[in-house]
Amino acid sequence: MSALLNTSPDPTPDSKKSHVPKDGGHGNAHPPWLHTLKVSAIRHEFDDTWSYFLELPPEKNPALTFIPGQFIHLVAPGAPVSKPTVRHMSIASIPEDGHLRIAMSLASGSPYKQAFRSLRPGQYLQVFGITGSFSLASLPEKTPLVFIAGGIGITPIMSLMRHIADKQLNHPWGLIHVANTHLFRSEIDQLFPENPRIYCSRHGIDSALDSPGLPAREAEERPQIGTPPPGQGHRTFEVQSTQYFLCGSGGFLASITRKLLDRGIPPESIRTEDFDH
Fold this sequence. Notes:
Residues 1-31, 210-234 are annotated as: Disordered. GO terms for molecular function: oxidoreductase activity. Residues 32-137 form the FAD-binding FR-type domain. This is FAD-binding FR-type domain-containing protein. The structure is a single chain. By secondary structure, the protein is α/β, with parallel strands linked by helices. It has two domains: 35-131, Elongation Factor Tu (Ef-tu), domain 3 (Beta Barrel), CATH 2.40.30; 145-216 and 237-274, Rossmann fold (3-Layer(aba) Sandwich), CATH 3.40.50.80. The protein has five helices and 14 strands. It is globular and about 50 Å long. The model is unreliable at 6-29, 218-229 and 232-240 (pLDDT under 50).
């Protein structure tokens, strides 16, 4: 069961060690592209996996505006900006939440991950450069979606699923989450009881991909933009099929992509987000 740490600042001396900008935590620190956000909460998900909630300033800031599925550059607590101290972290929240939620496994023991062990609510983290193209932008209405996540690769997919529900988008979707322990599972089951969800280990991937419960990959004829009304000239159509959104390690993506191609899924219907980069 996940546990949420106290959202008030930690009273121990460690809370004094976080970098707090002169503007009190909201707005821009120097340099101007670097932004400092307050950690409003930390949630223990399972084992050595945690969610961090970073409070967004109430005033609109284009540099901190994101669309579901994107990621942010996150600087290790108290560290200067350098290649070893910065990682890309996908955002699990949606813009309407008013915060950035990221999830991280600290199990690797890397210096970057270890720096988060002493982080407490009320301290501050530095971020910059929200970007990424792993999104639903430009997808035609009613396009069926299959989300396939490997381990913590569920993070941006959580944002996409919540976005569909929040905006009531007309996209039938199903989820395959491949992991030993499934991050966000209780939240997903509670939020999306009507959507097909398959939780499996790597040994169950093939049967999951062949599940009849997932959105069908049947083509649908839809009028193209500018199509003349019936009876007024030649009527053309575009064909829409299921789009597959894959997120995980490079090896996971290569394996799943190969399995989808073997099943006749066209390459243009497969979108990937590589957690190794």
